[in-house]
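Z., the sequence and structure:
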Amino acid sequence: MWVSGILLTPTSDGGVYIIELQVVDDDGDTDSETEEIEVGHVLSEAIINHGPNPVPSEGCIFWFNLPNDTRNALLRIYDVDGRPLFEVSIEPNQRRYPTLGRWEPRGTNGDKLGSGLYVYRLKVEHGGSITWSDIHKLVIDR
């Protein structure tokens, strides 16, 4: 018996795709199932970056490459245990944060973030779905 499956690779625009599973037994009899699946918009892996790294006490800049259909975006910074320390809304047409100057490493409550390893992600609401960026490392060196 052998099994084969076909799935068309989605484009970055997403869409509706048809998958087919075909089974052939030892006697040559076949059977197949076909189903439609919907794949949401796939974001490029490089939707957010920052520099410099390590981040000096005067701060860093975050750069964004947001999809055209972005409605809202949220930048979040976490400690290594996954606790959120800082978050800020990003406008759909915004290409960097802060728009002027640098982000001084502080938590949402205003406390300075100490030297060490942190991580960040970008949450993007677009085209009726929510997508998170990859997790990026942020090293603060005070």
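The domain at 48-140 is CATH 2.60.40.4070 (Immunoglobulin-like). The CA atoms of residues 117 and 142 lie 12 Å apart.

Let me know what you think.
H.
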